[in-house]
Amino acid sequence: MIETPPLVDQHCQGVLRTELGLGTFEAQLIRSAGPPAAGTTFFDTQTGFAVRRWCPPLLGLEPHCAPVRYLARRRELGAAEAARRLLRGAGVGAYLVDTGAPGDLTAPKELARAGDAEAFEAVRLEPLAEQVADTSGTVAAFLANLAGAVHHAAAGAVAFTCGAGARYPAALAQAPEPPGPGEVRGAAGRWLAGRAKGAAVRDPVLLRHLLWSAVATGLPIQLHTGAGEPGQRPEHADPALLTGFVRATAGLGAPLVLLGGYPHHRSAARLAEAFPHVHADLGPLLARTGAGAAAVLAELLELAPFGKLLYSSGGRRLPELHAVGALVFREALGRVLRGWVGDGAWSWRDADRVAAMIAAGNARRVYRLDERA
Amino acid sequence: MIETPPLVDQHCQGVLRTELGLGTFEAQLIRSAGPPAAGTTFFDTQTGFAVRRWCPPLLGLEPHCAPVRYLARRRELGAAEAARRLLRGAGVGAYLVDTGAPGDLTAPKELARAGDAEAFEAVRLEPLAEQVADTSGTVAAFLANLAGAVHHAAAGAVAFTCGAGARYPAALAQAPEPPGPGEVRGAAGRWLAGRAKGAAVRDPVLLRHLLWSAVATGLPIQLHTGAGEPGQRPEHADPALLTGFVRATAGLGAPLVLLGGYPHHRSAARLAEAFPHVHADLGPLLARTGAGAAAVLAELLELAPFGKLLYSSGGRRLPELHAVGALVFREALGRVLRGWVGDGAWSWRDADRVAAMIAAGNARRVYRLDERA
Amino acid sequence: MIETPPLVDQHCQGVLRTELGLGTFEAQLIRSAGPPAAGTTFFDTQTGFAVRRWCPPLLGLEPHCAPVRYLARRRELGAAEAARRLLRGAGVGAYLVDTGAPGDLTAPKELARAGDAEAFEAVRLEPLAEQVADTSGTVAAFLANLAGAVHHAAAGAVAFTCGAGARYPAALAQAPEPPGPGEVRGAAGRWLAGRAKGAAVRDPVLLRHLLWSAVATGLPIQLHTGAGEPGQRPEHADPALLTGFVRATAGLGAPLVLLGGYPHHRSAARLAEAFPHVHADLGPLLARTGAGAAAVLAELLELAPFGKLLYSSGGRRLPELHAVGALVFREALGRVLRGWVGDGAWSWRDADRVAAMIAAGNARRVYRLDERA
């Protein structure tokens, strides 16, 4: 048996506080541009099957029970109690919570209380800029306030997170260096003049400025990559497109953590091999690929140095996703490493050591959690 | 054991009626720009080994017998009787036949009779346009006749099929919307003026017009993707390049079925997850990867919703390919799903249900076969 | 059991003659732009684990012993004796040595003596051009001397090797044909005027000229592809980008061997399927992916004709890498083929035959080794 310490879930969001009907629950299972096609259901996916395998027992039901039965039991317990049982069943010791997600989600402390775990904040750069823009009258004030806000966030959070890697990899590839001050002022002026209150920042120059402001703090930066949201361009999913930015930030002190990357996760592993400051995340692969997770995990373990891989659930909105991420991870990691020990390729001792690194140790080191707790 | 109903082979062509020598037979096994390299044979491929495993027993020989022995037995039986035995050994209940392939191939009804199955027609758009061009005197007549021909084809066929996704993905990526009427007239005029009778349509504007004419009928459209023909540009093989077209056709009613995709089949699965009207085909992977098919199939099953995956053989010219597709599929699907049930990840009941969906149910729903039969 | 004949290692470099400390040894294990990140070591990689599994027993220690213990034993034996034991433990019958690598490395004959094997030379084109440039006074002399040097190299070597496929795939994609004489003269003039003595050739026109000069000799050309050196652009790693060059060289007589390709190795296999003169190398995948090598090898065996796959270790500097490549290869190939025989998909006879082809027979045929020995 491969034993792991309590996990560090290095990338997740809060959970919904409200009761959920079958349709609302189902809509959170996969990342789709629309409702299920006629004659199909999102429960008929690896994520759906993984939820039905792992979650019913945590609420006192048989594994693989029908979705309608599971949802009835969930309502019977209430959303808060169900979340409590699911999160505590996951064996997680610490959460890094992306607090920039929209919706009425639990804050880090609330998630920590429900899950009997520590919680740390990862600040998403785009909403930070949007909040600053909402309260700044001029371009100069916006840029000064933004610098202050990034600096202030760095003092309280353990990481920044940014979607520019997934949305503008081509912009980052063509111009990996920090934009000049005049360029930034121009872009900020155009954005502030044209935006409605609360509108999202999408300007590539401003996003590069945000990223480089974050790099300057030395805090780790989580970069979204891979085929995630339907709005994203899948031909931009390969983390290899971030190589220019990776090279430009080498040696500056801020670790980069590549989130996702699937189906180009081997490129993320390759970057983690080639650049000392790059790390690869493996979480969202787990709940999304379910029964197939061991194979995907083995692919990440081909090239990535074992000190550079970090567990996360990628869980959001449904506590089921936080729990399934953790339970699929332990199962898949155990299966892969036991296999390699059985082949004689790895020793038990090394397998246990690597499992502990990926489960928790690497994240504790990269995010300096033991200094922040 | 995983049981499947009689398969729906949702993409294949007819089979050759003539007797085949060793060299002619071998040349159909893989998709090569030339004859085997000196010192090698196309029989030394996964497809060749799969044919030698599965087909000799259907003709009364030992599995893995030598190619020359197999071909002798095939000639002894005659091409028609060999085809009859091979097709009936495949356990296929219905074929969707692409009738646009060149060569002296069996028509759908003939294939159905030989295989004791139903047959439906999938109309390939390019040859349809070429036939219309051969008999239309002016640009206006060509466009009117083409509209009529697409409309008429939609009444008799269950699907359209088109190679533009494989040959012009960049054109579709840059201009996913329907071309304007003036643009279409210009392109049609240039093509009609320059073409020899029977010449292939390769103009990207016309191909987009064909695709959008097909979309308007609401019939499912099978789009070729992936590394197929040697003449195709392999750097264009990623179905992710079709995302713009996929997004432009969302919600219009016509399902899209992405054929092939290998080695980027995970991108096809991702599109099937992200867009309700997109489906992924898994057939050509099976006979082409043979003993390795279970691993490739498992990769497709990572992200694709189980209601969006469709079996096909991709068989063409040799009835061996229709048979091997079906037999490899059952073997590989059984192996993958039994493994997941054995791990506790899936229930038997779900495994049987998903097997039936991929084998036949999804195709029956998407192509409305039960209304057409 | 799958038996293989003595291997032909069709792509490696010489080994370091000097004693190595822990840090110097570790630095050779993976291809990184910098030293290990704080808190990590390159020994915690698949390559590090594979070295610790396979090499200690060849030097009389327990497998998986600690790196510091292994290095102490290596120093005790001396670099030469350690190399002798490691190379002889690999079961290699012939090495093709890329003699263009920088550093104080053993020459082919020395490697052959140490490993009790044959050795053949693969001439790297870039250093050949650089040596010619160092001793040529004019553009005309340079081009004439270069033609002579390529011709002369072809008489003594069994292959050329070239990095342009990895460094300039976009240039090769846009201009796959041989550059014209005026273009070559212009590029040579600019390069000769601007270069310091010994400076590397990076001009895409000159690299294309080198490649086409090599093609004209008819000797096999080994093209580097895939995610190799950190200096390379990972978005250029897909061998599919070489399709234009592959098509342009079809039928001219010079075999192409695609080195590496990971994580796009399936594209390399696809090119080997589609073009008679293309072959795929599988070596560097083995020592780099270690315990995961069987899965990667199985992926290469999906589409590549079995007569087109060639073993190599990709070993360089450390004889451990030559040995690990060979030992991982035999283990992984045996595991994959035994599995397929066990499934009934392959016969034992075919498995043994294919193992012998990949291990040695294909390389002996492609490089005409039996005529050169």
Task: Characterize the structure shown.
3 copies of one chain form a homotrimer. With 373 residues, chain A is an alpha/beta fold. Chain A has a single domain, classed as TIM Barrel, CATH 3.20.20. Helix content of chain A is 52%, strand content 11%. Chain A is built from 18 helices and 8 strands. Chain A has helices at residues 22-27, 46-58, 67-77, 79-88, 108-115, 125-134, 139-156, 164-167, 169-174, 181-194, 204-217, 243-248, 265-274, 283-289, 293-303, 319-342, 348-366, 369-372; strands spanning 7-12, 92-98, 118-124, 159-162, 221-225, 256-260, 278-281, 309-310. The mean pLDDT of chain A is 94. Chains in contact: A-B, A-C, B-C.
- What is the beta-strand fraction of chain A? 5-15%
Largest chain interface and its two residue counts?
A-B, 37 and 40 residues
- Biggest beta-sheet profile of chain A: 8 strands, parallel
Strand order of the largest sheet of chain A: 1-2-3-4-5-6-7-8
Total strands of chain A: the figure is 8
CATH class of chain A: Alpha Beta
Number of structural units classed as domains of chain A: 1
Rounded radius of gyration of chain A (Å): 20 Å
Low-confidence stretches of chain A: none
Helix content of chain A: 40-55%
Gap from first CA to last CA of chain A: 30 Å
Based on helices, strands and strand pairing, what is the structural class of chain A? alpha/beta
CATH topology description of chain A: TIM Barrel
Oligomer: homotrimer
Indicate the CATH architecture of chain A. Answer: Alpha-Beta Barrel
Roughly what is the average pLDDT of chain A, rounded to an integer? 94
Shape type of chain A: globular
- Within CATH, the superfamily of chain A carries the name Metal-dependent hydrolases
Number of helices of chain A: 18
Question: What is the succession of H and E elements of chain A?
Answer: EHHHHEHEHHEHHHHEHEHEHHEHHH
InterPro entries (chains A, B, C): Amidohydro-rel, Metal_Hydrolase
Pfam families (chains A, B, C): Amidohydro_2 (PF04909)
Organism (chains A, B, C): Streptomyces cirratus
Protein name (chains A, B, C): Amidohydrolase
